[in-house]
Amino acid sequence: MAQISLTLPDGNARQYDAGITAGEVAADISKSLGKKAISATVNGAHYDLAWPIDADADIAIHTMADEEQANELVRHDLAHIMARAVQEIWPDTKVTIGPVIKDGWYYDFDRAESFTPEDLGAIEKKMKEIINKRDEVRTEVWDRARAIKHYEDNGEPYKVELIEAIPGDEPLRMYWHGDWQDLCRGPHLQHTGQVPGDAFKLMSIAGAYWRGDSDRAMLQRIYGVAFTGKEKLRAHLNMLEEAAKRDHRKLGREMDLYHMQEEAPGQVFWHANGWLIYTQLQDYMRRKQRAGGYVEVNTPQVVDRKLWEASGHWEKYQENMFIVEVDEEHAREKAVNALKPMNCPCHVQIFNQGMKSYRDLPLRMAEFGSCNRYEPSGALHGIMRVRGFTQDDGHIFCREDQIEEETAIYIEFLRSIYKDLGFENFKVKFSDRPETRSGSDEVWDKAEEALLSATRKAGIEPELNPGEGAFYGPKLEFVLTDAIGRDWQCGTHQVDFVLPERLDATYVGSDGGKHRPVMLHRATLGSFERFIGILIEEHAGKLPFWLAPRQVVVASITSEADDYVTEVVETLKAAGVRAEADMRNEKINYKVREHSVGKVPVILAVGAREVEEKTVSVRRLGQKQTSVQALSDVARELAVEATPPDLRA
Question: 337 pairs with which residues across the strands?
């Protein structure tokens, strides 16, 4: 029998007969590893312990201590165990697919009756029974004809359709969990008892069209989450509970920030409170950009398709664009325009007006650009995922030898803004060339090398995010981590050699000849809509005082204090604090509760004693204690807090 060489992570190689399984390799290394092993990585691919290895390879054995692989297996096995449980309880149910997703899995079922929330408890109970049986998990490879006949005989039409849609004629892998069987690529654990029975939970039921096609059957999807231990599950559920409290859609209603309605899907109706946050943030960004050497411009909303064709967006991005047809007077055919989905081609048009010299570079151009992109209705999510939004967009036109310096300058610019807004740390991902792209490989090599080198020179080693660059160039993605550990991709910085070429942008170099500028695309907050949603959830509605739309409510305890309430409000307004009066004939506790729900940062209570002493009783949001302070001291203190961070001394 042929011999193969398997190289372990420590560099040592072992010789085995071809066809040895990863499980046998683990047992050969040590008896304890053989017992603890759950899977292996063979030449970078995740392997079931039962799969044969037929050629030389690098191999690493995994145990439950390897979080990434263990989570994948546990969640994958639970998808099968859940499907088995459903069919044991309701035998007429037909199964479809059940993939692993972030933090868990889902499985789609075809069942005549609807699942209820109460059914989830029964399914969980049956799943735990299956886990406790410690049924063997085994795998076989079948030819297609045999697999199709098996599913036809067992009344599983969805499995038949899946097999028929798989290209090629390669054999198929079949898995059994006990007597229950599924078509699956694997890998899986070795028996059901390896799944932690106390570390999973079924979460919800949703509708899902078969294969995402609205003309096909509506299925029922059950979602679950799972981890390698009950403490991790508990932490995840606590995080979800906290996330629900912080949901910007819920807080948006309570704080009266905005609303959305079906007549304008994916578009935001900003109320006065929400628009105040928006304009405060925009004014802050305008000052930062001006200080950073940017010139602010504004470009049209509706642009002829000819520009989008020239830029490459018509070919690469048309499905996400809103098309506007205009029947021009006396025209033989309608003019085809598009609402702009991004601002970059328009900024090149401004750059192209008049002759530019190498002395004019870098030219930093910024716009609060209102954009529109088509998003499927099912993908819309409050103000986090919309169709109409405004970006703090910017483009830096520079020479190739300026890329490194401009990237370093931008990273520091972005770092200072994130710090001002309460995000001390961020991660950076480097996204290289996607499959669908413009420009030659030579141009992409140059762009990727320039951006990666510049990022490292700025003291940052980015995480690789392969294939996720824009169609015209590689990019950096700046990822914020919020108070409960969630990641948000916000800022971007992209190097583009392609668009200046396509749109014929030039400058006169020191040699007197024409040269192409490099275009650096950058956005710091991304869309204002999404970033405001992130801020709301990061701070659980308790926004930094300078951004809070309602900063202070001065509430009367007794009607005799009404005149003093007005005096306090006017004093605070004169100090630059947004203040309002609440002189309703309601108890002070009622007023405090109501304004606390509205996330007003400071409530000043005023009664007879405060009137006499020219003081106020100060209650800050989230604090139970109150303090009595002189009005002049409070006004001075709050005036400092109301000053945006870039304007503080």
Answer: 304, 324
State the binding site for Zn(2+).
344, 395, 521
223's CB contacts (< 8 A; 6+ apart) are 104, 105, 106, 202, 203, 204, 205, 206
Residue 429 falls in the annotated catalytic set: no
**Rounded-to-integer distance, Cα 311 and Cα 438, Å:** 10
- The answer to whether residues 499 and 519 touch, using CB atoms and an 8 Å cutoff, is yes
Active site residue 391: yes
475 noted as active-site residue: yes
Is residue 92 among the annotated active site residues?
A: no
Predicted model pTM: 0.83
393: annotated active-site residue: yes
The segments of the chain whose pLDDT lies below 50 read none
Which of 62, 76, 94, 521 does the annotation list as catalytic?
Answer: 521
Contact of 352 with 332, CB cutoff 8 Å = no
- 595 carries an active-site annotation: no
DSSP output for 418-453: HHHTT---EEEEEE---SS--S-HHHHHHHHHHHHH
Exposure string over 57-84, b if 16+ CB within 10 A, otherwise e: bebbbbebebeebbbbbbbbbbbbbbbb
Looking at residue 280, its pLDDT comes to 97
Set 76, 159, 305, 395: catalytic member: 395
pLDDT, position 331: 62
Out of 108, 392, 393, 432, which one is annotated catalytic?
A: 393
For 18-171, strand residue ranges (E) read: 20-21, 39-42, 45-47, 52-53, 57-62, 94-95, 100-101, 104-110, 137-142
Q: Which residue has the tokens 């509706």?
A: 302
Residue 456 designated active-site: no
